[in-house]
């Protein structure tokens, strides 16, 4: 068990002081793990602290309304995580009397909890002997043991989990899981790791074979789709504006936005102004259209790139359901729209 012993020794000397590491409370560990999916620790930590201040228990989170949760989540991205988080909190609070399931298999039944998150909660909260397998674990094990399995394959997780299970000390699975993830995050990083100071530099197969940069093997992602969003920022005679809720499945569900004109390519002033006059705001006369950003803001999501322009649209009279700027700022928005509102 030389690998495990060296790894844990490294961890105890190098681990970061993170707020969720000082607890075995499954609520706090679940919260941190959901937040850290697709999110770096440095970005996620302030959100974790804000959430635990606002919702110190699963009952507090369950009793909140969804818009409160989305507003606090604003900027963290992958908003389905927040919606699932809220639904799961309600289920645990109201159906399970606030008690989280006590095993890996039962944790998997919770909405938004996959194999990795269930393993993390089970090992950190209950010391269950179950390995975590995330990107860090794939990277560390593939390099150390020279495993060339494509980690994009569905079968890869099972293979790496079996390997991790062989290495995990059965008397302390939690510390091993923490250690291997931390090692991947701090030492065995994706690009140009400093192998000269690595505790495994005498035993790492990838280093001996000069293959560190080639591992782990991962097939290319799906092609990214480009979309072109034109947001119509209305101002009536009272300087009130209007927003709408995105209710359809897909990106930003249940967040708010300005009226949207989506086009097949980036369009200029003449095209947009004409479409606004023809198809939008029929109850009020359009008196002015102004381009706020001549160059599109490119907002990159995992599977699509959004090219976003904002257009100021002046309307005559009073618009129905108009809201002022103060009220506007209380709604949860995608971060790109939030940033626009804050700059105005």
TrEMBL record:
InterPro entries per UniProt: A/G_AdeGlyc_MutY, DNA_glycosylase, HhH-GPD_domain, HhH_base_excis_C, HhH_motif, MIG/MutY, MutY_C, NUDIX_hydrolase-like_dom_sf
Catalyzed reactions: Hydrolyzes free adenine bases from 7,8-dihydro-8-oxoguanine:adenine mismatched double-stranded DNA, leaving an apurinic site
Cofactor(s) essential for the protein: [4Fe-4S] cluster
MF GO annotations: 4 iron, 4 sulfur cluster binding; 8-oxo-7,8-dihydroguanine DNA N-glycosylase activity; adenine/guanine mispair binding; metal ion binding; oxidized purine DNA binding; purine-specific mismatch base pair DNA N-glycosylase activity
Residue ranges annotated for the HhH-GPD domain, each copy included: 35-186
GO biological process: base-excision repair; mismatch repair
SUPFAM superfamilies for this protein: DNA-glycosylase, Nudix
Co-factor remark: Binds 1 [4Fe-4S] cluster.
SMART domains: ENDO3c
Keywords: 4Fe-4S, DNA damage, DNA repair, Glycosidase, Hydrolase, Iron, Iron-sulfur, Metal-binding
EC number from the UniProt entry: 3.2.2.31
Domain of life of the native organism: Bacteria
Protein family (similarity comment): Belongs to the Nth/MutY family.
Function statement: Adenine glycosylase active on G-A mispairs. MutY also corrects error-prone DNA synthesis past GO lesions which are due to the oxidatively damaged form of guanine: 7,8-dihydro-8-oxoguanine (8-oxo-dGTP).
UniProt-recorded name of the protein: Adenine DNA glycosylase
Source organism per UniProt: Flavobacterium frigoris
Lineage, uppermost ranks: Bacteria, Pseudomonadati, Bacteroidota, Flavobacteriia, Flavobacteriales
């Amino acid at each position: 068990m030389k690998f495990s012993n060296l790894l844990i020794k490294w961890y105890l000397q190098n681990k970061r002081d993170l707020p969720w590491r000082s607890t075995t409370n499954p609520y706090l560990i679940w919260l941190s793990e959901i937040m850290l999916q697709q999110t770096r620790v440095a970005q996620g930590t302030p959100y974790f602290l804000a959430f635990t201040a606002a919702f110190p228990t699963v009952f507090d989170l369950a009793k909140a309304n969804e818009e409160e949760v989305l507003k606090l989540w604003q900027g963290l991205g992958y908003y389905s995580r927040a919606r699932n988080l809220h639904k799961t909190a309600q289920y645990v609070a109201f159906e399970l009397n606030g008690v989280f399931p006590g095993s890996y298999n039962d944790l998997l039944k919770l909405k938004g909890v996959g194999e990795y998150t269930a393993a993390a909660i089970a090992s950190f909260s209950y010391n269950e002997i179950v390995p975590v397998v995330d990107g860090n674990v794939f990277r560390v094990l593939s390099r150390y043991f020279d495993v060339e399995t494509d980690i994009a394959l569905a079968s890869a997780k099972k293979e790496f989990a079996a390997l991790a299970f062989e290495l995990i000390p059965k008397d302390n699975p939690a510390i091993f899981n923490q250690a291997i993830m931390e090692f991947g995050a701090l030492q065995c990083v994706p690009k140009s790791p400093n192998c000269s100071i690595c505790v495994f530099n005498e035993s790492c197969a990838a280093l001996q074979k000069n293959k560190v940069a080639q591992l782990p093997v991962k097939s290319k992602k799906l092609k990214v789709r480009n979309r072109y969003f034109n947001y119509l920022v209305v101002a009536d005679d009272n300087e009130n504006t209007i927003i709408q809720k995105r209710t359809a499945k897909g990106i930003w569900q249940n967040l708010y936005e300005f009226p949207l004109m989506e086009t097949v390519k980036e369009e200029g002033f003449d095209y947009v102004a004409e479409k606004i006059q023809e198809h939008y705001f029929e109850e009020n006369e359009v008196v002015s259209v102004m381009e706020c950003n001549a160059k599109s803001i490119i907002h990159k999501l995992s599977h699509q790139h959004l090219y976003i322009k904002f257009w100021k649209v002046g309307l005559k009279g009073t618009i129905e359901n108009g809201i002022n700027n103060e009220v506007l700022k209380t709604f949860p928005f995608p971060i790109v729209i939030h940033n626009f509102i804050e700059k105005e």
